[in-house]
Amino acid sequence: MTASLMVEDEYDRYDAVGLAGLISKGELAPIELIETAISRIESRNPKLNAVISTCFDAARDSVLHSPLTGPLAGVPFLVKDLNTLLAGVPATNGSRAFADTIPEYDGILVSRLKAAGLVILGKTNTPEFGLNICTSPKLFGPTLNPFDTTRSAGGSSGGSACAVACGMVPAAHATDSGGSIRIPASNCGLFGLKLSRGRVPLGHDRAEGLAGFSVAHAVTHSVRDSAMLLDITHGLIPGAIYSTPDTQGTFRQSLEGDLPQLKVGLCTMGFAGEGIDPRCKQAAIDAGTLCESVGCAVEEAIPPVDGEALREAFDVLFSANIANVVGGVLSRGPGQNPETLFEPLTLACADDGQKRTAVEYVGAVETVQRAADNLGRFFLEYDVLLTPTLAKPPLKLNEVSMDCDNWSVYLKKMLDEIPFTPLFNATGAPAASVPLSKTETGLPIGIQIGAALGQEKTLLRLARAFEVERSWHSRI
Hints:
Blueprint: H1 8-13, H2 16-24, H3 30-48, E1 51-54, H4 56-65, E2 76-80, H5 108-115, E3 119-124, E4 144-145, E5 148-152, H6 158-165, E6 171-176, H7 182-188, E7 191-194, E8 215-220, H8 223-233, E9 263-266, H9 278-293, E10 297-300, H10 307-330, H11 338-341, H12 344-354, H13 358-381, E11 384-388, H14 407-417, H15 422-427, E12 431-438, E13 444-450, H16 456-469
Parallel strand pairs: 2-3, 9-10, 9-11
Antiparallel strand pairs: 1-3, 4-5, 6-8, 7-8, 7-12, 11-13, 12-13
């Protein structure tokens, strides 16, 4: 059958919760919504390269022949192609080494998304193993920023952020190991919440990712979509080694009622002395003023974190983990050619990791634990830490490139661009990028809000207050 399409403006008017409401009230046929999303992907993706694999026929079949249940029944969705199992769809991790890997089953996270009624249409682009803040894998090519196609959409969830920002889908799955939800959210004018460690399962059903740095969630237009997606995905999985305390009520309910008076610490200095673009610094200062206007108390504050030590720990933990992945692939048998399987930066990272000792790895873990202790004490005095999300507005395409064969040089350049985000991966605490500012040419600039472990509701409530005061999109 051929379904009619929604009017373009109509599709753009609603977030995921709003679209689900239209379906539940019988005002919109699910197949019409899915065909509209497919049409958007087919028309816009050739230019932007956000989606790298599709399962349109399976999506149509599920809408036409399976019962639609759940709070987001019938809403189109995309899944990031990094450590996330979607049955019958390649799980490449952005790498030629896994180009032919096709899972036979859905991971627990994907199963929870489907159980909520989301209709998955395909997977989004990501750099190899998520190792770049620009999404430009050799396997699939670069994802462009819909605000300026000469700019990066960010990484490593650049495909998901681009797809949502340009209107292919209202929300999309994303992951974050050093800022990979918040970076592209900032670059693409979206809300991106990085959750507390252990809040939701990882997409490959393993209990830990990258020494505990990795989490999964989403990029969205609206705060309520992020809260709803958290409500349908949170909860432990068998074998979980981390847990995050729950609080009463749903995350969606946390958006209701008045914002409590929060004490906000404003920091615009890189934790290791990194240079910050004046536009990003001003965006954070302006956000502090906005905090005051919604009833928060704001003062300048620098968290007691050793930024240089954290950068070194990041180096050790990431390079050792990548060395383990690369070594596992190359151990499959003789005749493996690393240069045809992996990008130059990945091999350089793995080579660096092979040289690390067990003592260095334990030292890096201890550094991370000290940072968590110190940040925890900071949040005994402050409810929220407010910073720029990034050091600069969206970078030019391939300004940070994985064609580099020197891991140390590459890592320094990359970390200089993200001085604020890795702290929350290292410590496990939640943080979000909120789209509150733009450059003089209209490029998005995000601000980051972070809170103590388990305090997603504080961040969601504050972000919702921002959204009411400075609506950043037309969706309701």
